[in-house]
């Protein structure tokens, strides 16, 4: 399925209401979107603090309302039937969305994707973008939990190996992890990378040098978090050289400081 995208922005005073359809100023653009097509709506009406995902809608028919400011219109079916519109985290989505060229030079990657002039219904979304938006609707949550749980178990298994065994596997491992989308983008990271970086760090944060702030209850190991220096979403490698073990404070600073 290919999806389009529409923006319900600050020209609007209230939340998106699919019962009123959706209108465009261009008849040509409207007619390019065939009946049966589906699209996402992201909204940030005037006075709203955050972007929200209003759901998925299907085009039931085309019609004209020449007295409307947006006269070339779609009649819609609400596919997702959301009760509450989920808030979109611009920072996280800016990292996991494909890097977008163009748009306002001061905008983040999220806004370049969804707020540029004339982008609504211009062309179908990249499959990677539509998968991310689908995941924001909560699809794939069970898969996400399964992936995270499996990765934690694999790291624990890797930590039981010797450093020599891990390095042997790392020498033949792929540096680019497979990527799939669930509630957010999830990379199938190499547990040997995490285990070897934690082994290298011992009990000290590799940024501030302080001892890890606490030990895990389950196995009494020092708690540090493995961070990629160049993010995977920006093309960074899933390798020991591109990773560092950080205390939680330094890890938050690396992302938000």
* Unreliable residue stretches: none
Which structural category do the helix and sheet elements fall into? alpha+beta
State the strand order across the main sheet. Answer: 1-3-4-5-2
Distance between the ends: 39 Å
**Percent of residues in helical segments?**
25-40%
The radius of gyration computed from the alpha-carbon positions, rounded to a whole number of angstroms, is 23 Å
For the secondary structure, the number of strands is: 9
**Structural domain tally:** 2
Shape: elongated
- The average pLDDT value, as a whole number, equals 86
DSSP strand content: 15-25%
Q: Helix segment count? A: 8
Domain HNH nuclease: 192-252
GO molecular function: endonuclease activity; nucleic acid binding; zinc ion binding
Organism: Photobacterium aquimaris
Protein name: HNH endonuclease
Structure description:
This is HNH endonuclease. Helix 5 packs across helix 7 (191-201) and helix 6 (163-172) packs across helix 7. The protein contains eight helices and nine strands. The radius of gyration is 23 Å and the shape is elongated. The strands form three sheets. A five-stranded mixed β-sheet has the order 1-3-4-5-2. Strands 6-7 form a two-stranded antiparallel ribbon. With 257 residues, it is an alpha+beta fold.
